[in-house]
Every structure is written in C-alpha cells, then in structure tokens.
Amino acid sequence: MSAEPKPDFELLESWRAGDERAGRELFARHFDSIYRFFRSKVDDAAEDLTQQTFLGCVKGKDRYRGDASFRTYLYTIARNRLYTHIRDRQRRDAVVEVGQQSVADLGLGSATAHIAAREEQKLLLTAMRHLPLEMQVALELHYWEGLSVREIAAVIDTPEGTIKRRLQRARQRLDELIVELATSEELRRSTQANFDDWAKALRDNLAPTPTEEP
C-alpha cells in the first residue's frame, strides 16, 4: 500500500529545513493549477509567469506564517505577478485599474484555437476573457480550482461578502456574454445546456504540455 501524500505544510516545513526534494514535490503538486491560472488570461506569458510565481514562493517561503492554505499563498503571489505583468505592458496608461478591465479590453490573451478544441470551448474562453479580470479570477478560483469564498477573499484582498456577490454577478454576466458572443443560436444553446462539461473540458485543455511541465 502506497503512503499517504504529505500535506502541503509538511512539505513546506521539510523544504525550509533544507529538503530540496520536498520543495520540488510541492511545486509539482501545484504547477498545473498555477500555469492554468495564467494561460486562461495571458497565454503567451503563462510559462514565464508560472516560474516567477514559484521563484517568489522560494524567496518568501520563510515569511509564510501558515495563517492561510499554501494554495491561497501561491495564488496571491500569482495574482500579484499577473497584475504587475499587465501594468508593465500598459505603461502608456500607468493608472489603469487592472481588476476592472477584461483581458479583451487590455489586448491580452491569444487566439483560442490552440487551447480550445471545440467551438463551445472557444466561446466559453472568449466570454471569460470579456469579464472584468477580478470577476474572471474569482470565477476560475471557485469553479475550477475549488477555493472557498474565504480563500478567494484572501487572494484578492476583498471582504468575503463582496466575493459572494462578485461570484453571483460573474456567473450571470458570463451567461450574458455567451449569448452576445455566440455566432449561432445552436452554439449558444449547446454551450449553455452543457456548461459544466464544456467548462471542465476547457480547464483540462489549459493544462501544460509535457515540455512545459517542471
């Protein structure tokens, strides 16, 4: 019988004590989800930003106090890296409110064809990229990564009540965008009728290829 995997905090403590293998195991455990976080928004920079996130974790591991889950800690670093990346690309408008803009508004993201295999997945990804970024982040962390409202509130540094309302509005707005962006009534019906299946398939397609894995 195989041994139970060690919890994140145990791996982190071993890593802090000098066990590099524990650090590599911790990164491997979370690499796909962090990569997916970036690829749904800035596909061309996903690999680099993922590496920057883990580098930030390496530098800050001794400052992590354990008052939140390790995943929350990682996603907080990832969100900060994403926003810094966007601001660096938007130097002509240094005061841009990143979270209130969408990936589409900011001219980020890339063609969906190499990420989404089916038209329904392409429509869903395009619609997500038209949400305000804070809505997109909250929606993905909740539905794709399984973070609680409390954890998302910690990542985004926003009260839990605000996160609950934001998730409700984001899901409603996503449905509206699917209607607005669908190129046919048949595509709209198929995407909405099988939303959970298409969302799961898109999530799977955003995973790194073998050459991109750590």
TrEMBL record:
Keyword set includes Cell cycle: no
Entry annotated with the keyword DNA-binding: yes
Molecular function per GO: DNA binding; sigma factor activity
Location of the RNA polymerase sigma factor 70 region 4 type domain: 123-174
Superkingdom in the source lineage: Bacteria
InterPro entries for the chain: RNA_pol_sigma-70-like, RNA_pol_sigma-70_dom, RNA_pol_sigma70_r2, RNA_pol_sigma70_r4_t2, RNA_pol_sigma_r2, RNA_pol_sigma_r3/r4-like, WH-like_DNA-bd_sf
Record SUPFAM superfamilies: Sigma2 domain of RNA polymerase sigma factors (SSF88946), Sigma3 and sigma4 domains of RNA polymerase sigma factors (SSF88659)
Domain RNA polymerase sigma-70 region: 26-92
GO BP, sorted A to Z: DNA-templated transcription initiation
Entry-linked Pfam families: Sigma70_r2 (PF04542), Sigma70_r4_2 (PF08281)
Alphabetical keyword list: DNA-binding, Sigma factor, Transcription, Transcription regulation
PANTHER family to which the protein is assigned, alphabetical: RNA POLYMERASE ECF-TYPE SIGMA FACTO, RNA POLYMERASE SIGMA FACTOR HI_1459-RELATED
Sequence similarity: Belongs to the sigma-70 factor family. ECF subfamily.
Name the record gives this protein: ECF RNA polymerase sigma-E factor
Source organism (scientific name): Enhygromyxa salina
